[in-house]
Specification:
Aminopeptidase; alpha+beta; 18% helix; globular; disordered N terminus; single chain; 184 residues
Length: 184
């Protein structure tokens, strides 16, 4: 296998076995709000789509980008200012419980290293796509933490007891989460 460019790989030998899923990457700008501004800006981002190699069906998508954070509010990495992190704008899968979301997070970890983010990955966990099943617990199971120790403890208790998030509490609202740098 030979890498042709950052976004593509040229296979110079036949594949012995085709994988069950492939992930392909395309340029997709992301609208972001700078740390100390109310004006949105476009940042260069990417759409990563996972597809089934037998059917061609799209199984999931991640929209993400490396970003420089200057935030004085310490929303993500509280000990570091400024820092570069790989920001997951969106993860969407079309079938839960199949491991597709976890595979996209693993890809984000690798892309974080490739883009010089040193393993930093952050996101805002939101219930915008599924009001009754926020993804906070999924992200916590995949190693993400919040700057709120109370929230981390609450999510750990949900995981330990097998209970869902209380969707009627403020705990189900948007939650800033990040992977600790030493998790790779």
């Amino acid at each position: 296998m030979k890498i042709v460019s950052q976004n593509s790989i040229l296979f110079t030998k036949p594949l012995r076995k085709l994988p069950k899923q492939i992930i392909y990457k395309a340029y997709k700008p992301i609208i972001d709000i700078e740390d100390d501004s109310v004006f949105p800006r476009l940042i260069p981002g990417f759409s990563y789509k996972m597809a089934d190699t037998k059917t061609g069906q799209v199984l999931g998508e991640m929209i993400a980008a490396p970003v420089v954070k200057y935030n004085r509010k310490n929303e993500f990495y509280p000990e570091e200012l400024p820092y570069v992190s790989f920001f997951i704008h969106l993860i969407k899968t079309f079938s839960q419980g199949e491991g597709f979301g976890t595979k996209l997070i693993e890809l984000a970890k690798r892309e974080s290293v490739n883009y010089g983010c040193e393993g930093r990955v952050h996101l805002i966990s939101s219930r915008i796509f599924d009001r009754n099943n926020p993804p906070h617990i999924f992200y916590k199971k995949n190693g993400f933490i919040s700057n709120s120790q109370e929230m981390n403890d609450y999510l750990d208790n949900c995981i330990k007891s097998g209970t869902k998030l209380d969707v009627y509490s403020d705990k189900a609202d948007n939650l800033n989460m990040y992977l600790p740098v030493n998790c790779l």
